[in-house]
Hints:
The structure is a single chain. The chain is an alpha/beta fold. The protein has helices spanning 2-9, 29-37, 59-67, 87-109, 124-130, 142-152, 173-190, 192-197, 203-207, and strands at residues 45-49, 53-54, 72-76, 79-82, 119-123, 156-159, 164-167.
Amino acid sequence: xxxxxxxxxxxxxxxxxxxxxxxxxxxxxxVRNLLAMMPYAANDVVVISDSNISVDARYLRxxxxxxxxxxxxxxxxxxxxxxxxxxxxxxxxxxxxxFVAPSLAAAVGGGAPAVVGKSMAFRRSDLARIGGLVxxxxxxxxxxxxxxxxxxxxxxIALTRSPVRNVVARQTLxxxxxxxxxxxxxxxxxxxxxxxxxxxxxxLFLAL
Length: 208
């Protein structure tokens, strides 16, 4: 209902709501959603952001502008955590702002295939040439694997100057620990050496 109201309110914008039954066989639910929506995309440039992301009015212009860079195949954004209303959410946002944001900037600046799927842009034609979304449908960290695919294909990863805001209002400490344990396990298998060095760059860990 919210999306339909927005579409009606901004009738001059070509927007479409896609509801699907998940017919695709890929187990990753986000990739399933993207595969269902992609046939309705009108243009080659695709921008993806998560539902709990808040952006500025210049967001799309900045994403598209970064993608025009020579040899750039994929664009991602710095992330800041905002909106905390519980201790768990506060710790989550401290982690995003104190570790994830600077680590992402350092990694992209150093040429590493670091991508956060909460905000990314690419050309459909480029993605099709390197394997398409189906090729990441069987992994949970599809954003990191997409980054590796683009780099292997000779493309560069670009980082926008402006961050996107990841809204985390309520989270329990147990939920925070469970989430980090899950993503830590993924990073351990996908980027082993950087993962081993992570503790020395955790501000919260060092403070404790």
